[in-house]
Amino acid sequence: MDLEVRHLRVVCAIAEAGSLTRAAVSLHMTQPGLSAQLRRIEVMLGGTIFERGQAGAVPTPFGELVLTRARAILPGIDDLLADTARATRPRGAPDRVRLGSVGAPLLADLVLAVRGVLPAAEVSTRCQYSPSPLLDDLAAGRLEAAVVGDNPGHELPPHAGVVLCPLVTEPVFALLPGTHPLAAEEEVSLNQLLEEDWAMPHPDSDRTREYWATVFAMMGRQPHTPYEAEGRQLIEIVRAGLAVSLCQATFIEVPGIAVRPLAGTPLWYRHVLAWHRDGPLAVHGDEIVRRVGEGYLATCAATPAYARWRERHPVRRGCPTGSAEPKTATAPAARHGAPPGAGRTTSHVPSRAG
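That's the LysR family transcriptional regulator sequence above. Prediction below.
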């Protein structure tokens, strides 16, 4: 077997995810299939790339060498693929639009917006836990648009040719068992929450855990986190009364779960729409952002805890902690392919649990 580009992507995906199980999900493979492929790659290269154990998949010194070279090679290959794709792309409306998203409430609205401006196009979607691979795919022409997000002081890095359009900055809320005493309160103190056991998502390149840890450190506290989980697994741990966590303000309560604002709003998250400056959606950017913003407001109204919070915290223009009102692409910094990072606010929001 000869070494192929896809093998380098597999190795980088495992390093990014920190475990074969998580990498298999992102690569749309089974865990046994990915494990077998990794063994073949290691045999071909002549060394062990990852040590696998309870801590996940940790690169060996040999693996660090492989990863360093792979990460140096792949951007050039991606640039070549992106340039040739753009050079051969037919003029006019595309017949296929590929969208990506992190765990956020905006993907369905983005799909509907794209269908509204390009009704003849076939729309497909895929999701990632972290925005980094989505931005890489946008830069390389493997996606046309994506829903991403970041946190204050931990903003998304610029990617060549990728337009980042901030849509809304919203507060992070507490995620509680429905039977927890704090669920009876209108809002929850973060200090109170830090007295509990926590469930948290795996740390990765979206820097959410890093942002939370920074805020906790400013309080002189760090949570006890015996549970590391994502998505449905995290929800079930909280529902069982084993832990508390954080979630996006638009998280819809399910039986056994309570969502409550954090007193003083100490944590924020920013939803961002992204597309390639030269991609087929660039000309429709303003309209897509407008439609997604309208969908977001409808989601807010349908989320009781967040709707009540918004009533108590009307939008204050120029507030240094940001706004909980969508910023449409008609804002000067967001129009017509503004440079990556233009128009950023200083606040954002969270959690991949939602």
